[in-house]
Every structure is written in structure tokens, then in C-alpha cells.
Amino acid sequence: MPQLNAGARLQGTRTTTVLLGLAQTLAWASSYYLPAILAGAIGQDLGMSRATVFGAFSVALLVAAATGPFAGRLIDRHGGRPVLVASNLVFAAGLGALGLAQQPLQVFGAWAVMGLAMGSGLYEAAFATAVRLHGAQARRTITGITLFAGFASTVGWPLTAWLESSLGWRGACLVWAGLHLLVGLPLNAMLPAAARAPAAPAEAASPASPPAALAPPQQRAAALLLAFVFAVTWFISTAMAAHLPQLLLAAGAGMAAAVGTAALVGPAQVAGRLIEFAFLARAHPLLSARLATLGHPLGVLCIVLIGSPAAAAFAVLHGLGNGILTIAIGTLPLLLFGARGYGERQGLLMVPARIVQAGAPFLFGLAVQRLGAGALWLSAGLGLAACLALGRLARELRR
């Protein structure tokens, strides 16, 4: 009987991983990765600069920051299925509104609606759903979800470009809206229903209890350190996504080499997640995260010491670290605080990350404009600061 129960649990986690992984691939491809392809066409059609279109996207990120804790609280209480299904409806509404927009204000309004969906339908909500279903055993599910969604840009960018060339940017938005209704919604609707939230006294005996019993002051300190680490790593990731080709050009690479090298980041992220899944799954998540925060600074060191010939090494090291850190965002709060209240706590921890993410392209762009490739010293310093913060957290746990 125990073997049957273990087999059923394994099958359940695999089902959750596949359903959430596919749904997350669609959600990321149709939101976070959409402006890179459509911003120029939207701006040209509606008389907006490309920067203004990205400003509307920044509004979506700020709305997502405000929405995340509320969505997480709903997942804690009712499970992830109803929240994620609702996010597909909101995604469809936002994409439909964007496809029908006739003036800049309507673009901003459409992206604000998209922000509601992003705050309740991207990684934080998916991770909270996995934890709500599988408790402390959700680490491998979280890793599996990121493995699927790691191909969101690989799938999303070419498909969006093809749709834009075939149907125009409006048609591309409407097709993505339809995919949320025809594909994303059924995937999320097939998720298992979550059990009723347990009463508070059951926490002590629950397998979801935190492995490390932290006193309240330690919990507050750990939460602040994690919020800082998540904000720093998302700032670096977003800044590199927006400016990596320009940085490589400033470091001496040619245009073709810069673009080709930047394209290595996506596969490297997936490779990092595979490494975490295959080799680091039994390691402490803090060890994985600390190693991952060193990826970007080591890549910068390669650029500084060798120059443009090390551009590929930089891109791969940055991508490897970023891929593993995406998993750490889901697993570290589970390790430190347990499964109870995970969704709301995860939403709160990610508020600073969403805010700095919204400003990262503009702020780091100023640094690139003034310092050129020297701006990498700034991002490397931030990566080292994140590593030091995780080291401080590890010392607190050892106590």
C-alpha cells in the first residue's frame, strides 16, 4: 500500500508539472516576451515611441507587483486552479484590448489589465499552486515547471514574429488571446483540486512545516534578505535582457556576434535548470542559489580579463546562474517558511523584484549610456551582494 501511495503521489506531481509547465510557457510567451517583438509595430501604428510602449509594459509589472500578494492569498485559501483559470480569462481580455487599441491611452489600459493577469498567472502563482498541492515535496515540481517555461522565448518570439508578419500586430494579439481560452484555460482547469486549507494547529504535525524552525525575528530577517536577493537578481536579469547586445557591442564584439551571443542566454538558462534538476536536486537550495549568484559576476570577470572573445562565456555563465535562480525563487521560501501561507508570502517577497524589474531597462540603460561596458561592474557588484546576502542567511540557519 505505501508503494501504491508513493506511485500515486509521483504520478500526481508529474501531472501537475506538465499542466503547469505548458500553461506557464503560454503565459510567459504571450506577456513578458511580447513587447520585444511587437513594440515597434504598435508604436509605428499608434504614433508612440518604442520607449513609450515599454513604459506601458512597465505599468503592467507594477500592477503585477500589487496583485501578487492578493492572488497568493487566494491560492492559499482555495487552491491554484480557480486563480489560474481566472488569469487566463484576464490574459485574453488584456490581449484582446491591446489588439483593438486605437490610441496610446488604450495601450496603457490594456497592459494594466495584463498586469492583473501577470500578477496572478505567472511563476509565483504556479509555484504557489504546486506547493498548495504537494507541500514540502514541491521542489521537483517547481524545477519541472521552469524547465517547460524556459522555452517560452524560444517558442514565443518566433511565433509572435510569424503572426505579426502574417496577420499584423493586432492579429497576433488576438491569436494569443484565443490561445489562452482554447489552450491555457483547459490546461489550468485540469489541475487537481486542492484539499481544504488545514486549520492552524495542524501545522506542527504537517509535512509542510519548515525544516528550519526560525524564531519570528529570524523569519523577518530571512524575509528581508530573500526580498533583497530576488530584487537584485531580477534587476540583473531584466537589465541583461534589455541591453545585452548593446553591452557586447560596447565590449568590442561585432553586431552579428553580439546578437548571436545574446541568443545563448536562453539555452543556458534551460541548461542551468537541467543541472539543478539532475545534479543539485539533493543539495540544499541555499547552496544552489549561492553558486547561481556567482554566474553573472564570473561572466563579467571573463569579459574584463579577456575582452570580446569571452562574450560567449559571459552569456553562458549569466544564463546558467539565472536559470537556477528562477528555481530558487520558488524553493527558498518553501524551505525557510514552509508551505502554510506560501502563496501570499511569495507574492509579498516578489513585490520589490517586480518594482525594480519595471525600472531596470531604463536605469541600467542610463548606466550603459554613460559607462558603456563598464556598466557591467554595477551588475557584477549587485550579483556579489546577492551572494553575500545568501551567505548571511546560511549563517542564520546554522545557528
Automatic annotation (TrEMBL):
Chain ranges of the Major facilitator superfamily (MFS) profile domain: 16-398
Molecular function per GO: transmembrane transporter activity
Keyword entries, A-Z: Cell membrane, Membrane, Transmembrane, Transmembrane helix
InterPro entries: MFS, MFS_dom, MFS_Efflux_Transporters, MFS_trans_sf
Subcellular location: Cell membrane
Transmembrane region(s): 53-71, 83-102, 108-130, 142-163, 169-187, 221-241, 247-266, 287-306, 312-336, 348-368, 374-394
Gene3D superfamilies reported for this sequence: MFS general substrate transporter like domains
Superkingdom as given in the UniProt entry: Bacteria
One Pfam family per UniProt: MFS_1
Membrane topology: Multi-pass membrane protein
SUPFAM superfamilies linked to this entry: MFS general substrate transporter (SSF103473)
One Gene Ontology cellular component annotation held by this UniProt entry: plasma membrane
UniProt xrefs under PANTHER family: CHLORAMPHENICOL EFFLUX PUMP RV0191 (PTHR43124:SF3), PURINE EFFLUX PUMP PBUE (PTHR43124)
Official protein name in the record: Putative MFS family arabinose efflux permease
Native species: Pseudorhodoferax soli
